TrEMBL record:
PANTHER family in UniProt: PREPHENATE DEHYDROGENASE, PREPHENATE DEHYDROGENASE [NADP(+)]
Pfam families: PDH_C (PF20463), PDH_N (PF02153)
Native organism taxonomy: Bacteria, Pseudomonadati, Bacteroidota, Cytophagia, Cytophagales
InterPro entries: 6-PGluconate_DH-like_C_sf, NAD(P)-bd_dom_sf, PDH_C, PDH_N, Preph/Arog_dehydrog, Prephen_DH
Keywords, sorted A to Z: Oxidoreductase
Protein name according to UniProt: Prephenate dehydrogenase
Biological process, per Gene Ontology: tyrosine biosynthetic process
Gene Ontology MF terms: NAD+ binding; prephenate dehydrogenase (NAD+) activity; prephenate dehydrogenase (NADP+) activity
Domain Prephenate/arogenate dehydrogenase: 6-279
Keyword presence, Protein transport: no
Length: 310
């Protein structure tokens, strides 16, 4: 399989993460074809794209992964299929079933998970997870991984089953916490502008991330929450802890509150280096906010002066 002559096809390449992959590969001066239901591509027919591409990257919404996989699979003999799905078990297991159902068809397959948003412009410091593969041609695998490594990204090999267990916490718990906290903030009846004005830099960081997540496509987060079977048990545990701490507070039980916090400290003590990192980030945010306030003040002054002159 000659990497120089490979054509890459990105299904779902007209937007989102698929759009990111299409742009990234084109910057690497690789031939790229795109199919997308929006019409922003070379094809609207996914099978037609699969016929013309040597490497097919499946970058559709999670709920569409299985239907599109089944649609294009007959066109993938002798080709490479790469999915970038955020949930792995249901998809990898369906690929394995298709391989068993079609013993005369040989399709190379890899399952990866880019741990960054499609708005990311620089790869340095970003991570990608390599979750599953049938045996790929070694030359191609080195080349494909190297496309990202050369830009400063890091690959981590994680079994697809462990991936979903980890993502139940890394994504499931994190997203749930953000959305519930943001909704509670919304229902408190205090204007967001007032909260921002009086928030310290540490609290402002929470506002930054609330805004980042809430203003993105909620369908993506819904699929991550609902397709990963490991999410719900983690969220039930979260609810138990919310109820436990709320009871302590309502009972005004200070010793119990202290014990509640103290009992989790051994878990986080090996991570003390992050305290220094948080101090650095808080300082940098404080500097950024100070500059922003000065710029706003200067602009307001200039507008007042302009009004006086007119």
């Amino acid at each position: 399989m000659d990497k120089v002559r490979l054509t890459y096809g990105v299904i779902g390449g007209g937007q989102g993460l698929g759009g990111w992959f299409a742009r990234f590969l084109r910057k690497k001066e690789l031939p790229v074809l795109v199919s997308d239901i929006s019409g922003k591509g070379d094809f609207t027919d996914n099978r037609e794209l699969a016929r013309h591409a040597n490497v097919v990257i499946l970058a559709v919404p999670i709920k569409a992964m299985i239907p599109v996989l089944e649609e294009i699979y007959p066109e993938l003999h002798g080709k490479v299929l790469i999915d970038v799905c955020s949930v792995k078990e249901f998809l990898v297991e369906r690929v394995e079933q298709l391989r068993e159902e079609n013993p005369d068809q040989h399709t190379y397959y890899a399952s990866i998970h880019p741990m960054f948003a499609p708005t990311m412009e620089q790869l340095r410091g970003q991570g990608l997870l390599w979750n599953y593969e049938t045996v790929l041609p070694a030359r191609f695998e080195r080349f494909f991984r190297g496309l990202f490594s050369k830009d400063g990204a890091r690959w981590y090999d994680v079994d697809y089953r462990m991936h979903d267990r980890l993502m139940g916490v890394v994504q499931g718990l994190n997203h749930f916490n953000v959305f519930v906290s943001a909704k509670a903030l919304r229902k408190c009846g205090v204007a967001l502008a007032d909260i921002k004005n009086f928030a310290s830099p540490p609290y402002r960081i929470f506002i930054v991330f609330f805004t980042r997540y809430v203003l993105q496509n909620p369908a993506l987060y819904a699929d991550i929450q609902m397709y990963n079977r490991h999410v719900a048990p983690v969220l039930r545990l979260f609810r138990e802890e919310v109820d436990r701490l709320l009871t302590i507070i309502e009972n005004q039980d200070r010793p119990a509150f202290t014990e509640y916090v103290n009992e989790m400290q051994p878990y986080f003590e090996p991570n003390q280096d992050d305290s220094a990192l948080s101090s650095h980030l808080i300082h940098q945010l404080g500097v950024y906010l100070d500059r922003a306030r000065k710029a706003e003040s200067q602009q307001a002054t200039a507008e007042v002066e302009g009004t006086k002159k007119s």
